[in-house]
Amino acid sequence: MSEPLELNGAMEVPKIALRGVKKAFGPKVVLDGVDLDVKRGESVVIIGGSGTGKSVLLKSILGILQPDSGTISIDGEDTTHIGGRDRERVMRKFGMLFQGAALFDSLPVWENVAFGLIQGQGVGRREARERAIATLAAVGLGPDVAELSPAELSGGMQKRVGLARAVCTNPEIIFFDEPTTGLDPIMADVINDLIVKCVKNLGATALSITHDMASARKIADRIAMLYKGKLIWVGPVSEIDNSGNPYVDQFIHGRAEGPIQMQIKAF
Amino acid sequence: MNFLSGIGRATLTFLEAAGRLALFTLTALSHCVRPPFYLRHIGRQMVEIGYYSLPVVGLTAVFTGMVLALQSYSGFSRFSAESAIATVVVLSITRELGPVLAGLMVAGRIGAAMAAELGTMRVTEQVDALTTLATNPYKYLVAPRLIAGTTMLPILVLIADIIGVFGGYLVSVYRLGFNPSSYINNTWQYLEFMDVVSGLVKAAAFGFVISLMGCYHGYHSRGGAQGVGAATTNAVVSSSILILVLNYLLTGIFFS
């Protein structure tokens, strides 16, 4: 069980709490003791370079990967090693937008969006379809898109369908994995606005990973930077420019020179 | 020392793969018998495996029956045993060639498709997406395929048996000049219930193995398009080999 946070004298159990989470693949240590609390209704963005373990961290919280040590708690319940029905129960609190949208090719768009309702919550197909079309409208897609196959959509539309799928079940926690990667700047901003709107409307807790600073500034309440398997800086988004941390400064300004050295092999 | 460490490494790799397959099989089987059941998916897989495999399995069966009749005639006529052709055709088809050839054809068609579909779903994070939507991938993806494979192969083989025997009949009657009624009579005379049942049990086992290998290799595929390609190849090769090995073992159990 994680230590509760003390806020204004009241004890509040964090929505997501990580304590000493470690994960290694063979000799490669990816997470090296990560501690993080995400409060109810808060939006936290984890930034960091490629290969620093951001996706591994998200997948560990979701139970897709098992951490080697440490604990992960959701609403104060230790979910590190749960499986089967208990895992499915906890997963009903979650929605996730994947980097490549990860839409099911074999299903039309509306069934993708309604998947969590039909399979996870047992909602009837007719009602689920209506709710899916309403959710598609909330992300700016018309009902004509509902019958299309995901392969017929552009990258931006796929992301929006992925977002609709993530929020359709009204989840308490939403994860965003690189939500703007591969999109043009305007579409990226549209997605950012939709994320902010959806998270606010639902009152959900959001955890995102990205290396797009414009996106991070727009959707985050707090930003955490992951470097070499550890969170080296965590703070409010307003303080990111005055963090006093040379690693964070180098990352947010995208400079090649600095304490973070990219490993580039000469061929 | 290098030689010994090589043996040790190979043994450990083999044991790891065997353990992973055993765990995968047990987990998948446990989801086959526990609700909820995705009936829509089971039905879709049954149509995919049973109905759409019918042309290729039927074509294989009819030509196998025809070739068997021709070969038996050319061999048996050397010692005037042409009357045994009908029996040879029906026993060969029901006991061995029906299930094995149908199994191998379906392994190529269905095993490869399953591995490619699940492999693509794995590398595009669709399998992870299922988990985040509170749906167990074993129950949603693997169990329907195992159930459909195990139930549809016997039905396919039963149809293949009939088509194969009909192929032998066509050649014997229209090419070799046999009397139709005596050919059918000879076909029935020495055919026993166990000949057909043993073939159908084999078919169920082959159907299970084909689906299991397709799902296992697809589910564990890694590394993009190349990984999916390797998973597809491995699924077809491993299920084909397992069909041949299982066929020997089951024949030993039924007829030794």
Secondary-structure map with pairings?
The complex is a heterodimer of chains A (267) and B (256).
Chain A: E1 5-7, E2 10-12, E3 16-25, E4 28-38, E5 43-47, H1 54-62, E6 69-74, E7 77-78, H2 84-91, E8 94-97, H3 109-121, H4 125-138, H5 155-167, E9 173-177, H6 185-202, E10 205-210, H7 213-219, E11 222-227, E12 230-236, H8 246-253
Parallel strand pairs in A: 5-10, 5-11, 8-9, 9-10
Antiparallel strand pairs in A: 1-2, 3-4, 3-6, 6-7, 11-12
Chain B: H1 2-33, H2 39-51, H3 54-76, H4 85-123, H5 126-132, H6 137-175, H7 180-189, H8 193-219, H9 224-255
Helix pairs in contact in B: 1-6, 2-6, 3-4, 3-6, 4-6, 4-7, 4-8, 4-9, 6-7, 6-8, 8-9
Brief digest:
The complex is a heterodimer of chains A (267) and B (256). Chain A is of the alpha/beta class and 267 residues long. In chain A, 34% of the residues lie in helices and 25% in strands.
What does it look like?
The complex is a heterodimer of chains A (267) and B (256). By secondary structure, chain A is an alpha/beta fold. Chain A is built from eight helices and twelve strands. A six-stranded mixed sheet of chain A has the order 8-9-10-5-11-12, with helices on both faces. In chain A, strands 4-3-6-7 form a four-stranded antiparallel sheet, with helices on one face. Chain A starts with a strand and ends in a 14-residue tail after the last helix. Residues 1-9 of chain A have low confidence and may be disordered. Chain B is an all-alpha fold and 256 residues long. Chain B has nine helices and no strands. Chain B starts with a helix and ends with a helix. In chain B, 46% of the residues are buried. Classes of the chains: A alpha/beta (267), B mainly alpha (256). At the A-B interface, helix 2, strand 8 and helix 3 of A face helix 4 and helix 5 of B.
